[in-house]
Amino acid sequence: MNDPAHRAALEARNAALRSQVDTMLVNLERQTAALKEAQAAAPQTATATSPDGLVQAVVNAAGVVTDVKLAPSAFERSTPDKLSRAIVQTIQQATLDVRRQAEEALAPFQNAMPDLPDLFPGAPSLKNLLPQPPPPVERPRRARDEDPDEESGPVLRGDGW
Q1: In the 3-class helix/strand/coil scheme, how is the chain assigned residue by residue?
Q2: What pTM was computed for the model?
Q3: Domains: count for the chain
């Protein structure tokens, strides 16, 4: 196998492979830098307000609640049941908003970046690194004959709940 032609062909193939790997690494470094910039520019929090304006919730980029504010008139204008539903729905909306904003900021990179299996056959995929949120929990509906606006008791009870 000391044939000069064979050796030259092997060296040419090795040089071509090295060039491909070098190009892939340069592209990966460029995409990684752009991804870091997009992550830094992505929103760090999202704020949502309930339709009635009584509840405001702030969540961070991970969807963790960082603040909940109630309007001063919340206990006068609502019932505990409606207020608790508004709090949950407002938090869920803020969580969806921050996730949507992050997805929009990172969308250009979803399809442009090579995945590990593209580079190394058999390697696990990195495309689904972000955990999927659990579906929103819906509260049970009242029976049809119950009035959902009817007071179920005083707005504030002596026991705090």
Answers
A1: CCCHHHHHHHHHHHHHHHHHHHHHHHHHHHHHHHHHHHHHHCCCEEEEECCCCCEEEEEECCCCEEEEEECCCHHHHCCHHHHHHHHHHHHHHHHHHHHHHHHHHHHHHHHHCCCHHHHCCCCCCCCCCCCCCCCCCCCCCCCCCCCCCCCCCCCCCCCCC
A2: 0.54
A3: 1
